[in-house]
Amino acid sequence: MIKAIIPTLTLLSGLYVGSASATQQCDDFTNVDVRKLRSNDTVNLCAFKDSPLLIVNTASNCGFTPQFKELEELHQKYKDQGLVVLGFPSDDFFQEEDEEQDTAKVCYINYGVTFTMLAPTSVRGDDAHPVFQFLNDQTSSPNWNFYKYLVSKDRTQVTRFNSRTKPLSDEMIAAIEKSLQ
């Protein structure tokens, strides 16, 4: 009986060490747990290691809110090639819903978003989420909703696109396709 348990314990300890080392291998700004939109579940952004990230500060009641549709199209087109789209709702420009459930409705029901949407957070100033503190230090903080930050697989390059740059624009597509190479 004990001989049967020892290999199992060894396997389980190996799995534990393996998962701990995976977190340790992510020594950049993505080593952070973020709560998902309208959920108690969190995701550590290290889960997307070796994938380019398209990080967007979103808002539910903005003239640029229809960009959710094109962001979802990008997600569907490039997810199998490794692109990860992350939406960070923010009320920094006073255009986000007051209730998180209403933000979720706009994203999931109105626009059919399936990419990862995270809990509302601040994206600029002293209260900015650590992800945006890093992005802001690398480029500059968003001047409005729907600023898009394309982060390279190796996390060494950040390209910022303003609100007016449409997700399906030639400029964005070229940058995304380059990041996937």
Protein architecture, described:
With 181 residues, the protein is of the alpha/beta class. The chain has one domain (30-179): 3-Layer(aba) Sandwich (Glutaredoxin), CATH 3.40.30.10. It is 36% helix and 15% strand. It has five helices and seven strands. It has helices spanning 2-24, 67-78, 100-110, 130-138, 170-179; strands at residues 33-35, 42-44, 53-58, 84-89, 116-117, 148-151, 158-161. The protein has a five-stranded mixed β-sheet. A two-stranded antiparallel sheet has the order 1-2. Strand 1 (33-35) and strand 2 (42-44) form a beta hairpin. Residues 1-24 have low confidence and may be disordered.
Entry summary:
With 181 residues, this protein is an alpha/beta fold.
- What is the 3D form? globular
User: What is the percent of helical residues?
Assistant: 25-40%
What's the number of helices?
A: 5
Adjacency order of strands in the biggest sheet: 5-4-3-6-7
Number of strands: 7
What structural class results from the helix and strand content? Answer: alpha/beta
What CATH calls the topology is Glutaredoxin
Radius of gyration: 18 Å
CATH top-level class: Alpha Beta
If classified by CATH, what would the architecture be?
3-Layer(aba) Sandwich
What distance lies between the first and last C-alpha atoms, to the nearest angstrom? 51 Å
